[in-house]
Automatic annotation (TrEMBL):
PANTHER family: ASPARTATE AMINOTRANSFERASE, ASPARTATE AMINOTRANSFERASE, MITOCHONDRIAL
Substrates-to-products reaction catalysed: L-aspartate + 2-oxoglutarate = oxaloacetate + L-glutamate
Anything else known: In eukaryotes there are cytoplasmic, mitochondrial and chloroplastic isozymes.
NCBIfam families found in the cross-reference section: PRK09257.1
The protein's name in its UniProt record: Aspartate aminotransferase
Signal peptide: none
Entry EC no(s): 2.6.1.1
Keywords assigned: Aminotransferase, Pyridoxal phosphate, Transferase
UniProt GO BP: amino acid metabolic process
């Protein structure tokens, strides 16, 4: 392929930056040397002039980028010397003692792996560990899924949920006729960045209604019904982040009918399977409804939360196709996306997952540990709700017990959050989201005091 063709195929970096800048509402012109950044767009796109003169660094004009809105909360937390500090920013599970948890079944799988002398450190294929891919598809689509039986699913191991979304986004930018992706408003903060840099054009659909603290179902249907034919729709499979608000099964069915009748392409982000209800099958229901109708969809799976494999970066992208021969060709193109990006994925985490998923006893043990994590989060919801009621904190806090998954979208505003961090050393994202998984019975009273003070002192 000639250089010009290659550029045309990939889309120029300038065009991608331009698209990202437009999406984020900044004035970017590749001809000029600076980017007039508003809010936080500069963190990813700011090109800067280089010093170029002898002695000075060629990077002298590189500007300091802001911290990530979610991972930056942990950076600030780590710098705080206070003994009462609590990190409710990142969605990472903690025990009642406030410690990170490695599941027993994960430890056991790792022991088996290190004790097996036949295991080597060779490169995996570009698509990753074959066993892992098959088992991941089964986990999300169901063991008896016709799509799997008919070999219509192309699955590739990727770098956790984020990497799966990015590879899927890049594949769509190259091979799908419609480059617009609709994401919910609000959504996980990394979604717009991942998809814009993948070469897609990001638009939003209404999702959350702050007045009811529930789903804006009318708005959602209206916005998706206006989307152009073929547009991609990003859906959170369960435990919507940050709102904790999921459609009911009836509402999912209506969303499915609309998506299929308009010829839209669903792209599921499944980062919390098992974390919403404690049940892996129930949390995959939305996706399975779409696969059951024989239509196409994409799914990005993460094992960060449900197996506690955060730093191992284990995930999978599955593309459900109409026929086996399409799936073979799709997989061949996914390899062309992955090879120049990171060549092939890491072996360790995927081997842990495959070991657990293929052994009936270990699988069972995992479901029990997973349920225990989900149940502890649900207990934290009840305890926080009770603590606010006891304090007579003004407002209706029932959404704390109604919302689903790792997070509570509290409704606290930016000033109240800043106050809680400054006065109570409670770290959370500025949109008022708290990670219930970071809370324990010991820290609930402290958080309730902070919320009470914030809402009574700051309107
Ligand atoms: N999708 C959603 C909806 C999501 O919340 C996360 C992570 C991911 C994908 C990516 O996870 P990965 O570790 O790449 O498998 N969310 C938490 C962590 C983060 O922001 O990276 C969070 O929202 O706190």
């Amino acid at each position: 392929m000639g250089d010009a063709n290659m550029r045309a195929e990939l889309g120029s970096p300038g065009r991608r930056l331009g698209t990202l800048a437009r999406h984020l509402g900044v004035d970017y012109s590749p001809a000029s040397s600076s980017l007039m950044a508003s809010h936080n767009a500069s963190e990813i796109v700011t090109p800067s002039t280089t010093a170029g003169s002898y002695g000075g660094s060629v990077f002298a004009n590189v500007v300091q980028a802001p911290e990530d809105p979610i991972l930056g909360v942990t950076v600030a937390y780590n710098k705080d010397p206070s003994p009462v500090k609590v990190n409710l920013g990142v969605g990472a599970y903690r025990t009642e003692e406030g410690k990170p948890l490695v599941l027993n079944v994960v430890r056991r799988a790792e022991q088996l792996l290190v004790n097996d002398p036949s295991r080597v450190k060779e490169y995996l294929p570009i698509t990753g560990l074959a066993d892992f891919n098959k088992l991941s598809a089964k986990l999300i689509f169901g063991a008896d899924s016709p799509a799997i039986q008919e070999n219509r699913v192309a699955t590739v191991q990727c770098l956790s949920g984020t990497g799966s979304l990015r590879v899927g986004g890049e594949f769509l930018a190259r091979h799908h006729h419609e480059h617009t992706i609709y994401i919910p408003q609000p959504t996980w903060g990394n979604h717009p960045k991942v998809f814009t840099l993948a070469g897609l054009s990001v638009k939003t659909y209404r999702y959350y209604d702050p007045t009811t603290r529930g789903l804006n179902f009318e708005g959602l249907l209206e916005d998706l019904s206006m989307a152009p034919h073929g547009a991609i729709v990003l859906l959170h499979a369960c435990a919507h982040n940050p709102t904790g608000v999921d459609p009911t099964l009836d509402q999912w069915e209506q969303i499915r009918l609309l998506i299929r009748s308009k010829g839209l392409l669903p792209f599921f982000d499944s980062a919390y399977q098992g974390f919403a209800s404690g049940n892996l099958e129930a949390d995959a229901q939305s996706i399975r409804m779409f696969v059951a109708d024989g239509g196409e969809c994409l799914t990005a799976q993460s094992y960060a939360k449900n197996m506690g494999l955060y730093g191992e970066r284990v995930g999978a992208l599955s593309i459900v196709c109409k026929s086996a021969d399409v799936a073979v060709r799709v997989e061949s193109q996914l390899k062309l996306v992955i090879r120049p990006m990171y060549s092939n994925p890491p072996i360790h985490g995927a081997s842990i997952v495959a070991t657990i998923l293929k052994d009936r006893k270990m699988y069972h043990e995992w479901t029990i540990e997973l349920k225990a994590m989900a149940d502890r989060i649900i207990r934290m919801r009840q305890q926080l709700f009770d603590a606010l009621r006891t304090r007579g904190t003004p407002g209706d806090w029932s959404h704390i017990i109604k919302q689903i998954g790792m997070f509570t979208f509290t409704g606290l505003n930016r000033e109240q959050v800043t106050f809680m961090t400054k006065e109570y050393h409670i770290y959370m994202t500025s949109d008022g989201r708290i990670s219930m998984a970071g809370l324990s019975s010991k820290t609930v009273p402290h958080l309730a005091d902070a919320i009470h003070a914030a809402v009574t002192r700051i309107k």
